Amino acid sequence: xxxxxxTVSERAQEHIRVQVQQTRTNFLRLGVKESGCNGFMYTLxxxxxxxxxxxxxxxxxGVTVCIKDQDLPLVDGTExxxxxxxxxxxxxxxxSNATSYCGCGESFALIDTSEEDDFDGASVSSLATDATRTx
Length: 135
Hints:
By secondary structure, this protein is mainly beta. The chain has one domain (7-134): HesB-like domain (Hypothetical Protein Aq_1857, Chain: A). The chain is 13% helix and 46% strand. The chain has 2 helices and 10 strands; from the N terminus they run E-H-E-E-E-E-H-E-E-E-E-E. The strands form 3 sheets. The protein has a 4-stranded mixed beta sheet with strand order 1-6-7-10. A hairpin with a 6-residue loop joins strand 8 (98-101) and strand 9 (108-110). The chain is globular and about 30 Å long. The protein starts with 6 loop residues before the first strand and ends with a strand. Mean pLDDT is 75; it is low at 113-129.
């Protein structure tokens, strides 16, 4: 698979850039792990250097996202935004391939390719999940 399409809003880009500077790292790794009641959960790690199986997605000056080979199909089409509600701010992920999110918003399920022909993708655009709350 080629490098996935990742969209990062300007607010999220600025947040990531500041976090990379504060942690004295160079990259943000976007990953997925099996977790939660719905199947998958986004993971974020700050890295000093990329690994040989990382795909680099240059989002903007100072913002490069690393994605492991095995996570490519799971994050393809992901939109990342920074949302502030009251005193809390969080990166919010919307995955165009997700079929559902759990009630707590921490995990998501993906399209089962055996059922893909029956899926109505129009309902996916309203799905989003919070990950990594910021102080």
